[in-house]
Amino acid sequence: MVTSVGRSIHALSDHVLGALMRMCNLRTLWVRAALLDQPTFAHLGSLSTLTGLALEAGWSNIAYPDRTETGSRAFAALRELSVSIAHSDAPHFLAHIDPESLEAVNIHWEYLYSDASSSGAVLQQLFAALSQLPKISLKHVSVALDAEMEQMVHIADGGPDDSHSHRLKGLADCSFDLEPVLSLTALRTLEIGIDVVFQVDDEFLMALAENMPHLESLRLTPLLRGPFSFDCLEPVPDELNSDILGIPNLDGLFAFSKRCLKLTTLRLAVRASLSGDSRSRLELDAIPSSCGVRTLELWTTALDPEVSDETFVSFLVGAFPSLEELCAVLPISHPEHEMIPRTEARARWERVANDVSAHERSAARVRSHVLWEIV
Q: ∠31-100-16 over CA atoms, to 5°?
């Protein structure tokens, strides 16, 4: 393994570049793109032994011709790839490589965009490029906020009750941005943990569950649990109770119960309400019980005042019989329930979570406590 982290392009001298050119059995390389020249990059791409590559940020003069324009496969042996969005040519790099069996892609998010839609556009480009790679072998895709950016968010945050501090932001109507990922049907892990709460609708959630039956872990919410605001859609004229958030009710999570039997971790934005159909199923004790989710993290609203605490407890216990950890992250304000103060919304969620934790599991006839946190 060769690891090279330089402060500038001058830190990688000619004799080191020459040494890289002579290495024909490299297996893993971690390097800044700015420290490579075109011949060295081409040499690395030709290696039949290079299975791991981490390409860090940095301005680069390297050309990345599309794989359809090259005469040979670039980085054909690659199995694990890490790439940074701060490297502006990241989508072109993904369109250049031609691995036979890439298994894992980790994208480091090293930039905080001023608006969530810009983040969505960057993701759309990256996922579109990923969708052109071999789909059968790709099992894990992770997009994570860089540690330095994470620290910046922490510095900006003034606490969950500070209305002037919400660097984490929602993005409604984001199905177009995430749509290319639906073609990656062999995924076991899909985790997008940046500074954006992705507000996907019921239709996209259903498509996700149908296209990814092998999914074990799904995250469309920030890694950081901090102050945030939902993105609100324009109300539909002359339509009562118009959906301004574009997110599913809690029972929208049923999309995964019969399709993703290996799913154990679920982190999504949902509305804390239940449809009339689900309430009827609760009364008939017909909630599915095969769901294997153990960790449930909901970026969510105040609990619907028209639904009782007991109904929410019955739903969570029945729908997630294997639940071990429950977390609800609340926004700084509730656009659909403006009259409910955040402190009151949090207190009610705490009561429900506590009742879920203390609920006696009838199937096992033992008391199984669920760890919970309300943020």
A: 25
Give whole-number Cα distances, 154 to 151, 203, 271, 285, 361, in Å.
5, 34, 26, 44, 39
Q: What is the pLDDT of residues 153-208, one digit of tens each?
A: 765 555 545 544 447 889 999 988 999 999 999 999 999 999 999 999 999 999 99
Distance CA 329, CA 308 (A): 20
Q: Are 264 and 291 in contact (CB under 8 A)?
A: no
User: Residue 325 corresponds to which amino acid?
Assistant: E
The Cα-based distances of 91 to 45, 57, 121, 130 in angstroms read 17, 13, 12, 8
Report the alpha-carbon distance of residue 168 to residue 15 in Å, rounded.
Answer: 45
| Cβ atoms within 10 Å of 107's Cβ, excluding its own | 23
Residue 278 to residues 191, 250, 263, 286, Cα–Cα distance (Å): 28, 10, 21, 9
Chain-centre distance of CA 13, in angstroms? 38
348: Cα separation from own chain's centroid: 27
Pairing of strands 140-145, 80-84: unpaired
Written as one string, the DSSP assignment of 112-125 is: --SSHHHHHHHHHH
